[in-house]
Amino acid sequence: MQFDFIVIGAGSAGCVVADGLSESGRHRVLVLEAGPSDRKLFVQMPIGYGRTFHDPRVNWRYRTEPIPGLGGRVDYFPRGKLLGGSSSINAMVYIRGQAQDFDEWEALGNRGWGWRDVLACYRRLEDHAFGESEHHGARGPLRVTDISKEAHPLCQAFIEAGEQTGLCFNGDFNGASQEGVGLYQITTRGGFRLSAARAFLRPAMRRRNLRVETHAEVTRILFEGRRAVGVEYRRHGEVKRANAAREIILSAGAINSPQLLQLSGVGPAHLLKSFGIEVVVENAAVGRNLQDHLCYDHVYRSAKPTLNDELFPWRGKLAAGARYILWRRGPLSLSINQAGGFFRTSPGLQRPDMQLYFSPLSYEKTPPGTRALLQPDPFPGFVTSVSPCRPTSRGYVEIRSGDPSAPPAIQPNSLSTEEDLAQLLAGARFLRKLASTASLKAVIAQELRPGRAHEGEDELRADIRARAYSVFHPCGTCRMGPSAAQCVVDERLRLHGLAGLRVVDASVFPTLPSGNINAPCLMVGAKGADIIIRDSC
After folding, report:
1. Predicted TM-score of the model (pTM)
2. pLDDT in tens, 343-353
3. Pairing status of strand 381-388 against strand 395-398
4. 2, 150, 98, 64: which is closest to 355 by C-alpha?
């Protein structure tokens, strides 16, 4: 099969890339996705991500190596394996990041990736509930929903508690400033999840020049010399090959993109040779620089009703289901991360360095290995959480063998720096400060975790190492930058030392943006498509 462009992976970035490359109708585009279609009930229903969280049909369900900073624990890394990728199984929170995040990208040698450039890209993507402004776009494919009319009433107690600690109310974390407390915006439309597949790929699939194949797992990128010319993939037990006349775009994500490069002969030479893989281009940076946001929870039994009271009893489940079926409203139409914010752990900092989450639901009694959000605790409960915005720990992704079906080794090295531990400790102290406000004291019946046995700093440090977990924002493993020795792609997302191949996904992030990263993934997809089209003229 011969195409102009082959896109590997129909995740957040890949869907946007496919849409952009096929839009003119001049180019033949093939999209290869390892997983199935996204047309499943628990994918389209927003709170259904509790069911897809461990579903092997739509989730790679990766596990990390034992992490020293977490006491040798193994952490869970869910990754979407279906059309829409992780945007089809995530919590849908829409956060673009801070302007300084992207100005830093540009300062690292990536021209055209500063805030002014990426903001224009964001605005073009958005159909924002707040309408068009200097901060937001309208009439774009991606609906960004305001949940203020649907959020649980307990969110207001959290917001008031934040204000009582000295934080300001922020009605728009994607506006002029990210700092403060408020409600999160989410990517839904008409009560359904608006994944990258629904917003970008499915409309593009009406075009005759775009072909999408599901259950198509790419096993190798094919080279002639140092030019990528095609891919080999498995589909329904059959090995197939497709050729690209122009370029191959690797959009398999922060885990699978470096894995596929290494399997194809691009990466650390010693690693590839140890598995008998012929080295096409040696690049020690492939798979390094793994970054991720870590999260730490305080869990409370509530003195007032929470979502547990609605979603635990069968009568409540049926009522919530009926409300959703009839009107596409209620808790099933939302994320559980309804409120939150950003704050500075030290007054001397120039910008927020910590993210807050508030969930009016708890699932402490849920069996280990599951996250059944429709099976919350049998008592009213809620969760407050902190997540450092820009951690300094760095990890890696590397293949374990030459077998494409073998999951790679993932080592995030979480809490490997004292700075990261100190930040989470400051976050834990802030959660206690929140809990001591008049607003939250009025609704807290008991602190379940970490509990009053963890009052001192040593006890809190131990609890952080015992319970902190990934918030599922891996990136950076094919870092963008001018140095071929330290980076994988250049500012135009081309592989250093290779032709005909680009990486367009979260793996190219030089540094981790502040907040949830699905919005930056979509932006990179759109900007990547623009760059490829301009370079192809």
Report:
1. 0.97
2. 999 999 999 99
3. unpaired
4. 98
Other residues' Cβ atoms within 10 Å of the Cβ of residue 161: 24
Q: Which structure tokens are listed for 227?
A: 């030019």
Locate 459 and state its tokens: 């006890």
Is the peptide bond preceding residue 450 cis, with omega within 30 degrees of 0?
yes
Q: What is the pLDDT of residue 471?
A: 96
Contact 193, 170 (CB under 8 A): no
pLDDT in tens, 142-182: 999 999 999 999 999 999 999 999 999 999 999 999 999 99
Distance CA 370, CA 61 (A): 11
Confidence tier at 277 by pLDDT (50, 70, 90): very high
| pLDDT per residue as tens digits for the range 105-115 | 999 999 999 99
Q: Which residue, 440, 478, 454, is CA-closest to 289?
A: 478
State how far the alpha carbon of 34 is from the alpha carbons of 31, 60, 81, 142, 233, in Å: 10, 10, 6, 24, 9
369 band by pLDDT with thresholds 50, 70 and 90: very low
| DSSP annotation string for 444-465 | EEEEEES-TT--SHHHHHHHHH
Question: Using CA atoms, how far apart are residues 426 and 163, in angstroms rounded to an integer?
Answer: 18
What distance in Å separates the CA atoms of residue 333 and residue 48, rounded to the nearest whole number? Answer: 9
Q: Catalytic site residues?
A: 473
User: In the chain, what are the domains?
Assistant: 1-69+77-144+192-291+399-410+473-537 (3.50.50.60), 148-183+294-388+416-467 (3.30.410.40)
CA 363 to centroid of chain Cα atoms: 22
257's tokens? 């993109």
Pairwise CA distance, residues 36 & 49, whole Å: 16
∠ CA 48-53-55, rounded to 5°: 95
Can you list the positions of beta strands (E) in 16-111?
Answer: 29-32, 62-63, 76-77
Q: Are strands 76-77 and 469-470 parallel, antiparallel or unpaired?
A: unpaired
Which position has the higher pLDDT, 371 or 344?
344
How far is Cα 14 from Cα 10, in angstroms, rounded to an integer?
A: 5
